[in-house]
Specification:
Layout: H1 2-18, E1 24-31, H2 37-45, E2 51-58, H3 61-69, E3 75-79, H4 80-88, E4 93-101, E5 105-108, E6 124-127, H5 132-143, E7 148-149, E8 156-160, H6 163-171, E9 177-180, H7 184-190, E10 195-198, E11 209-215, H8 216-221, H9 223-242, H10 244-255, H11 262-270, H12 280-293, H13 311-319
Parallel strand pairs: 1-2, 1-3, 6-8, 6-9, 7-8
Antiparallel strand pairs: 3-11, 4-11, 5-9, 5-10
Length: 323
């Protein structure tokens, strides 16, 4: 009865907020990753919100930022480091919500018996350049006193590859370990060509937050549409949290076309649960670690307090009675 009442209240709220008739188009940039699934789901329920969402999928978060700079998107889903680098590079964005946390894992070839970060010395470690996984890898290596570079001569040789290519490189024994995203890291473990070394959450960053950003123009000048989109985001995320079967079906079938198993999905989401929260403090710590480790090479690192704006999120969560 409570769920039925909640659905009725949600529908009534959306109608009151702007009506289902005028469906304004909102351009969304997203990534093909398990923990980005709730953001993708927004387009499925967008008509109930009185909007239409056109989603475009990119290979990495920095590509989303470039599309925003080019004026091709209104909203983007990225890891925090891409949003930070984008803001530093002139992307006219504000960070408005977090949609997942975690989502990284250090995985090694099982036959090598690597169980600690110290055992990476002398090894080739793969990572996606500019991704939050690179920030975490640099932080973990620095914590254990290991140096790194993409050329031989340091403690760890870095190999920069895309998320899918990292798995292929580990399987083909071209690299010894990888700092990988989800669901790819879970796939490597479940298919037995990878073994978990650690989840890299013991640095000052903690569990990294995936960040929903809006262009400043969309946030300020198209406020009613931005409010509708945020309510839709909260509802999509609540659906994925409260109804894991819906989340699994959508991610596995609609996004990955049954290329990942149920175990892959469930393991991935255990390591990258859907969420809403975002704080300026978390973004500032991540920015500081990026500066310290050299990831992003920002000439003028942005201050989180200048561009993290959670007022839309807070209003939407209050409106939909989400805590």
């Amino acid at each position: 009865m409570t769920k039925v009442f909640g659905s009725i209240l949600f529908a009534a709220t959306l109608l009151a907020a702007g009506g289902a008739g005028a469906q304004e188009v909102i351009r969304l940039g997203n990534l093909k990753l398990a923990h980005f699934g709730a953001v993708s789901y927004i387009k499925e329920i967008a008509p109930k919100c009185g909007i239409r969402v056109e989603e475009k999928t990119f290979a990495k978060g920095l590509d989303v930022m470039q599309a925003i700079i080019a004026g091709e998107l209104d909203v983007g889903a990225t890891a925090s480091e891409a949003a930070i680098s984008g803001r530093a590079g002139g992307a006219p964005i504000v960070a408005v919500a977090g949609f997942a946390r975690g989502g990284a894992r250090l995985v090694a070839r099982p036959e090598l018996g690597i169980r600690t970060v110290a055992q990476l010395k002398g090894r080739r470690v793969g990572v996606t350049r500019g991704a939050i996984q690179e920030v975490l890898l640099m932080a973990v290596l620095a914590k254990h006193g290991l140096t790194s570079a993409p050329t031989p001569g340091k403690d760890v040789q870095l190999v920069y590859l895309s998320y899918p290519d990292l798995n292929q490189a580990l399987l083909g024994k071209q690299i010894d370990a990888m700092m990988q995203s989800e669901p790819q890291s879970s796939q490597a473990i479940n298919k037995a060509f990878g073994a978990e070394v650690l989840k890299p959450y013991d640095t000052p960053i903690g569990e990294p937050v995936r960040t929903l950003v809006m262009t400043e123009q969309f946030y300020r000048e198209r406020r009613p549409a931005a409010e509708k989109f945020m309510r839709c985001f909260v509802e999509a995320t609540r659906t994925f949290i409260d109804q894991p079967a819906v989340a699994e079906k959508y991610v596995r079938e609609a996004i990955f076309k049954n290329q990942i198993s149920s175990d892959d999905f469930q393991d991935a989401i255990r390591n990258s649960p859907y969420s809403y929260a975002l704080t300026p403090e978390h973004i500032q710590v991540t920015t500081d670690i990026m500066v310290k480790t050299g990831v992003g090479r920002m000439a003028r690192p942005p201050l989180a307090k200048d561009w993290v704006r959670t007022d839309l999120l807070e209003a939407a969560m209050k409106n939909l009675a989400v805590r």
